[in-house]
Each structure stands twice: as C-alpha cells, then as structure tokens.
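Q: Here's a chain of 171 amino acids. Please give me its 3D structure as tokens.
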Amino acid sequence: MIWVFSIAMLTFSCTNDGGVDSNIEVKDGAKRSKLSAGSQSAEELQKAAEERRKQQEEAEKERLANQTTMEILPNVHDFGNIPKETSVSTVFKIKNTGDKPLIINDAKASCGCTVPRKPEEPIMPGEEGELEVTFKSNPGQEGSPMNKNVTVTANIPGSQKIVTIKGVVSK
C-alpha cells in the first residue's frame, strides 16, 4: 500500500498542472517561453541601460535639489519613573533649518509599545512642527529600564534622524 501511494505521489508531483505557467505574456497577447533568449540586440540592451542610468541620475538630481535640513529638540527625552501599563507622551519639536519645505515621510518606532505621530503637512523653512511619541509599558516590564528609538525619515541629507525616549517602568 505504501509503495503504491509513493508511486502515485511521484507521478503527480512531476506534472506541470500545479498552476505554474512556463510562458509569459508579451505584446498583443503573444506568449513567449520564460526560458527563451531575449529578442533584443546587444546595442538595444545597451541603449536601454543607458536610458535607465540617465533616468536614475535625473531622479537623484531632483531628490538632492529638494533636500533641506532639520533640527529635532530635544533628541532624547527621559520620562523618569513610568507607572506600569500607563501611557506617557512627549513632543519633540522639529525645526526646518533649510530653505526648502521639510517633508517628514515616516516616523517608525523600534517596538510596538511606542507610537509616533508625525506632522502630516510640510514644514516651511524657519517653521516648526511636532513629533508626538507615546509609550505604554507591557505587562512584565515592571522594574525594567526602557530605551526606545524613533527613526524619522525626511528629505534631508542622509534621509534619517533618530530620537530616543527612555525611563524606568515602576513596579
């Protein structure tokens, strides 16, 4: 019985009926094998690569032209003693110190117990925005020091800055 089952499994596992298509769709519904060689000449491939390189250079020039600078104060906030399983929040001031609008693309915390809320609108040159960071301890963190980072991604050189919150979760 085991021998018959093994032969049946081997037979059915070697077919191409599992939904994997060995062909790809190309222009106007025509099909071409994924294994076939490309129809482009070396010159066409080189020209396409050069065009992609130019597009990437243009995108990089545009990204650099739209960069600005920012300052986040303070860059570390110490909550001190934090009551267990209680939410605490602080606000970091983000100042646009450059000459282009500052766009905060993202703010990500190093863990799920920390929730940042970034400014949604661009911050104009010389103006300030707020990054609110909320922390709530989890059960079992009592008596433990807490040190969490929030990574802020923006249109600045290096694209990221890090702010830190810390404290000790009370028993």
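Q: Can you summarize the key feature?
A: Residues 17-21 have pLDDT under 50 and may be disordered.
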